[in-house]
Write a structure and sequence with these properties.
The structure holds 3 protein chains of 3 kinds.
Chain A (H helix, E strand, L loop, with lengths): L1 E12 L2 E12 L3 E5 L6 H9 L6 E6 L2 E2 L5 H7 L1 E4 L11 H8 L6 H14 L1 H5 L10 H13 L5 E5 L7 H14 L5 E6 L2 H7 L2 E6 L2 E6 L1 H4 L3 H8 L3
Parallel strand pairs in A: 3-8, 3-9, 6-7, 7-8
Antiparallel strand pairs in A: 1-2, 1-4, 4-5, 9-10
Chain B lengths: L1 H31 L6 H17 L8 H24 L5 H24 L13 E4 L2 E4 H23 L1 H11 L1 H6 L4 H26 L8 H14 L4 H22 L4 H15 L14
Antiparallel strand pairs in B: 1-2
Helix pairs in contact in B: 1-5, 1-8, 1-9, 1-10, 2-3, 2-4, 2-8, 2-9, 3-4, 3-8, 5-6, 5-8, 6-8, 9-10, 9-11, 10-11
Chain C lengths: L4 H23 L3 H26 L7 H19 L3 H23 L4 H20 L4 E5 L2 E4 L7 E2 L6 H5 L3 H25 L1 H11 L1 H6 L4 H27 L1 E2 L6 H14 L6 H16 L6 H15 L3 H13 L15
Classes of the chains: A alpha/beta, B mainly alpha, C mainly alpha.
Chain lengths: ~240, ~290, ~350
């Protein structure tokens, strides 16, 4: 079943389109990965999906509902959760407050408490440092807090922008193990990565972006034999 | 010893009023990056609101303070809905909003002048009498001022630190886009911030007018002091603002006592400028790093 | 000095404007109207200098009237207490204003944005309060107590340019051409700054502070220099104002006067070349017109500020430019905002 369907999306800043005519579908409870070098529109795509920027043309249907015109908070209410690049934590707040901000639109306080404990159980480091300011965390802890804050929204669709960005290999491994576990939790994931290697191991489907267009998409098994991959990254045409 | 008590009593009263006058200013700056030049008028309007409620509507005196609070809050809301809302996020917002709120200030001042006249009214919402500590008379009104200011600031601190609304305000101040991604309706947060700041300014106006009189220009002097206090604390730092207000109130009281009333504020400003040469981002402000 | 095409074009406009004003007394003989044009010269100078420092150099100073006052008070005090001729006192007034700007600038310009606005505003207000609360007599003049800085009433009725003796009934003409001369010099100096090396430096600083600093352009130094230059002309205007009206007093400190000048800058167009001059003329007419509605001068100014910032942030100059562009289809493409990546 398709949970998110994007048709002919064009978006950008001022007079410079960054995305050109992008279309793809995401299956429910799958992991969909968008790969490609930086500066080719992946982040712009997520920002259009969460409503931070307004696309110029095209349509976005989430769970059977057109979301193009909805405000950012309405999309969060529908369960479309965007975990931004570089974590974007609230630096002067404690970890716990950051996580509670993730649950901002939820009103059932006891359920929020349960989610909080779940996140702490999932990332024990966050539990140990729950009253520390987000500013004082290490890179890996920040990433966990960012993902944890996204989980707190209890949304069914998680969009994660570069979960491995700026982390040491060992930490990337940890984060990916967490993502692998989460991918079996009944949620749908749309993950952006620059490096296709690790994400290909957990993704059900991948799409390669180049120059604001999707130039290839398919299952991970086909990725290795795909010529366009090296063309996109190394510019050989 | 009496001198010491006198300075503490005067300084605490001044500090309490300044703190109440500055906290809203710092809150607006911290959340919207907007410097509200109409803040002094919010105070004036609060004072006239409470005066009108008691003198014209015949409401009991204890309604006076809440009336000023509400009128100030409403003024903040209207300012947001008519002006700020349309300017947030536009180019040169920082400069333009100062110009616009300065325009609002001069219009409001003129409207008050036309509505009430230039005659300085006495604020009916006040207490008389006092008690002695040693040879120093401490008025009941000073005690009320310190108590009311402390209570309102404590309430604001509680609201900001312990409630969901406060968390949303702080989140918006720290990272606008991230707050929106959490589902915060930042438009509404801005409105709430202006309402809270306006209400605090309105209450400050009532307290200030209870020591002096009501006049259309009464907000000018406390606003000037609030400016300086916010600058010392580092613009936008709400907690630091309270501390800076009380310290500067005490310094001003001491200078007034030893050098004369005229020199209280000038000496204070001189110290502030020297201080800023040493710490250009204020006591608590962070250095803005310009990325190359 | 290299004269760029933009500078040359503006010089031509300036010469035409000044020549036009030089001919005004041929047509306008009414003393009141001539007086109004003189007031226009004063406010246009202050507005153009404020625009120079705020719109071009990027310093949101609220001390512009204070610098004007420095010039006016220095002139008044030198003439009153020092029995100096106004012709000698006026240059001193301009220099004192420049020095004041250098001191204020050295203290404030290392800060940015709102901090500068708040401190400059506070400094001006503190001086204002100190002057009007001063009651100590410095000298007695015909049994009247005269404070060193004029106290709450200020200085008045001191010696002026002396045209009353030479030109008799036409003394106003003498005053007119003196003020016009200062106005003309100010225009040329302002054009050289905006369209010369300094303007270039400020554009570089605004577009990319990092790059500008790496090329040796110090924001602090450039801003301080332009702040001082603008203070010189503002102070000169203040000096001539004092000599023309034979008055310098604390009423010049009023917030509404500051707002009047600000509205001229904003209505004309912050950051433009000729906007403040247009704005000064427009606001003087608006204020005159609003007076007929039961003295709604301040309301008119306040509304002008709010409405222009809301609906026409580029002011009349900006609106004219985009209209011109639309008619002749030379609209410059808006620069693309950088991809901020959240």
């Amino acid at each position: 079943m398709t949970v998110l369907s994007i048709q002919n999306l064009t978006a950008g800043y001022a007079n410079q389109p960054v995305l050109h005519d992008v279309s793809f579908d995401v299956e429910a409870e799958s992991v969909f990965a968008l790969i490609g070098p930086n500066g080719h529109g992946k982040t712009t795509l997520l920002r259009s999906l969460s409503g931070i920027i307004r696309p110029r043309a095209g349509s976005m249907v989430f769970d059977g509902e057109r979301i193009d015109k909805l405000s950012v908070h309405r999309r969060v209410e529908l369960g479309l959760i965007h975990i931004p690049q570089g974590d974007q934590l609230f630096g002067e707040m404690s970890i716990e407050e950051n996580l509670l901000m993730g649950a901002y639109l939820r009103n059932d306080q006891s359920a929020v408490r349960v989610s909080l404990e779940e996140v702490y159980a999932f990332f024990p480091r966050l539990g140990e440092r729950r009253s520390q300011l987000a500013n004082s965390l290490s890179g890996g802890e920040r990433r966990m807090a960012g993902i944890g804050r996204g989980l707190m929204a209890d949304g069914k669709f998680m969009m994660i922008d570069e979960p491995s960005l700026g982390l040491a290999p060992l930490l990337i491994e940890q984060i990916y193990e967490s993502l692998q576990t989460l991918s079996r939790s009944g949620r749908t994931f749309l993950i952006i990565e620059e490096n296709p290697v690790r994400i290909a191991e957990i993704a059900d489907k991948l799409a390669l972006m180049d120059g604001g267009r999707i130039v290839w998409s398919g299952p991970p098994e086909e990725l290795r034999s795909e010529k366009r991959l090296s063309q996109t990254y190394f510019g050989g045409h | 010893m009496d001198v010491f008590i006198q300075i503490i009593a005067t300084g605490a009263t001044l500090g309490a009023m300044y703190a109440l006058a500055s906290v809203g200013l710092a809150l607006i700056w911290g959340t919207l990056g907007m410097f509200n030049m109409a803040h002094g008028l919010f105070m004036t309007i609060g004072a006239y609101g409470s005066y009108s409620a008691v003198a014209y509507l015949g409401l009991p005196v204890y309604i006076g303070l809440p009336a000023g609070f509400v009128v100030g809050g409403l003024t903040g809301c209207i300012t947001h809905l008519l002006i700020v809302k349309f300017m947030v996020g536009t180019r040169n917002f920082g400069t333009n909003i100062m110009v616009a709120t300065a325009g609002v200030a001069i219009v409001l001042e003129d409207l008050i002048l036309k509505g009430f006249g230039a005659y300085p009214f006495r604020q009916p919402v006040s207490l008389t009498g006092g008690f002695r500590v040693g040879n120093v008379v401490v008025t009941y009104q000073s005690l009320v001022i310190v108590a009311v200011a402390a209570a309102l600031i404590a309430m604001t601190a509680f609201l900001l630190l312990k409630t969901k609304l406060g968390r949303a305000i702080r989140a918006t101040a720290m990272n606008l886009d991230a707050a929106r991604l959490m589902g915060v309706r930042t438009e509404r947060t801005y409105l709430q911030v202006l309402a809270i700041a306006g209400a605090l300014a309105g209450a400050a106006g009532v307290l200030i007018s209870s020591l002096a009189t009501l006049s259309p220009q009464m907000g000018g002097d406390p606003m000037l002091k609030a400016f300086v206090i916010c600058v010392v604390a580092g613009l936008g730092h709400v907690g630091g603002t309270g501390l800076a207000a009380v310290s500067l109130g005490l310094i001003e009281a001491a200078v007034q006592y030893f050098l004369g009333v005229r020199f209280g504020f000038p000496v204070m400003l001189g110290l502030v400028i020297l201080f800023l040469v040493w710490r250009p981002n204020g006591l608590f402000g962070k250095k803005v790093v310009v990325r190359l | 000095m290299i004269i760029s095409p933009a500078l040359r074009k503006n010089f031509v406009i300036a010469i035409a404007v000044i020549a036009g004003f030089a001919l005004v007394p041929m047509v306008v003989t009414e003393r009141y109207l001539l007086g109004e044009v003189i007031i226009f010269f004063f406010w246009a100078i202050v507005a153009s200098q404020w625009n120079l420092i705020m719109g071009h150099a990027g310093v949101f100073s609220l001390a512009q009237m204070f610098l004007f006052i420095c010039g006016a008070y220095t002139t008044a005090m030198l003439v009153q207490f020092g029995d100096l001729s106004v012709w000698l006192a006026m240059p001193v007034g301009a220099v004192v204003a420049t020095l004041a700007a250098l001191i204020i600038g050295a203290a404030c310009l290392r800060l940015t944005g709102a901090y500068v606005a708040l401190l400059t505003f506070a400094i001006a207000e503190v001086v204002h309060v100190l002057i009007i609360t001063d009651t100590e007599c410095f000298r007695h003049i015909s049994n009247n107590c005269q404070q060193l800085f004029g106290g709450a009433t200020g200085f008045s009725r001191f010696a002026d340019f002396g045209f009353r003796k030479i030109l008799k009934a036409d003394w106003m003409l003498g005053n007119y051409y003196v003020v016009l001369t200062v106005f003309a010099v100010t225009i040329f100096a302002t054009l050289v700054i905006i369209h010369g090396r300094y303007g270039l430096a400020f554009r570089a600083i605004r577009d990319n502070l990092g790059y500008a600093s790496s090329r040796g352009i110090s924001r602090f130094r450039y801003q301080l220099i332009v702040f001082a230059v603008s203070a010189f002309f503002t102070g000169a205007a203040g000096s001539v104002y004092a000599a023309h009206f034979r008055f310098a007093g604390p009423s010049l400190f009023e917030f509404s006067t500051l707002m009047l000048i600000l509205s001229m800058v904003i209505v004309g167009g912050l950051g433009s070349t000729w906007g403040p001059f247009i704005g000064a003329a427009v606001m003087m007419i608006v204020v005159e017109w609003m007076k007929e509605f039961g003295d709604a001068r301040n309301i008119g100014m306040g509304l002008a500020l709010v409405l222009f910032v809301l609906f026409m942030p580029g002011g009349l100059a900006g609106a004219f430019k985009s209209l011109w562009g639309r008619i002749f289809d030379r609209t410059p493409k808006p620069a693309a905002a950088p991809d901020t990546n959240v």
